[in-house]
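lol ok so funny story. i was supposed to be doing the assay writeup but got distracted and ended up predicting the structure for this chain instead. priorities right. anyway since i did it might as well share w the group, maybe its usefull for someone
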Amino acid sequence: MLAKQRRSLILEEVRRSGGVRVSDLTQILSVSDMTIRRDLDVLAREGLLEKVHGGATIGGHLSTEEPGFEAKAHRELREKDLIARFAAGMIEPGSAIALSAGTTTYALAHHLPGIAGLTVVTNSMRIAEVLWASGRSDPTVVVTGGIRTPSDALVGPIALNAVRSLHFDAVFMGVHGMAEHTGFTTPNLTESEVNRALVGAARRLVVLADHTKWGEIGLSTFASLEEADVLISDEALPDDARKVLSDSVGELVVVQSHD
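and the output, tada:
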């Protein structure tokens, strides 16, 4: 079993039961306790669980905890790029789309230059800078303006007024967290307000969320699971999440590594 698969199974067990013992995991996965401890170290560094004496528990993230862009930018890079590549393949030349702020939408931005006639509206200076730096005439870039949050989203009245005056063929949305009863959430109230406006201004909502977003719950919900026309995730998405999402979103796409 690959380390990535083993860690995914460890996370599933932690989320299912709320906590695990190293001794139990060694029996379940048939590996040494040293291997399990290394896996727990990796998962703890990524903020996916908390190590305790003899095992680990589910991460104690607060609903208002808002990691900065840099804190999230180095997590799940491979998964985010796979998701971004698939999402880019959905975009038709000549369309008008919106990209919310976030590290997965930032990955998507790298795949957009050269799509003919594309217009991209974003509330992220980082995404705009990626598109401008390409030196290509396409896409046309529109930045909402506004006040920056710790996650580098532009929010507030200026951003809201800009979004509410526009109409998109699709919005590609990154999320802080997603769960069955809370939907798609963010820890920042002002960012949630702009996200709601982006969803309301678009014909289609495409959510880009790697497997680590499942079970995370931020302070404010900006869309229900049912509002997503498409949700794109990666193959480490837990089985329970796949079932819930398949029953809720319009279409669940799980991108495989060989894709």
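The CA atoms of residues 46 and 75 lie 7 Å apart. The longest helix spans residues 3-17.
back to the writeup now i swear
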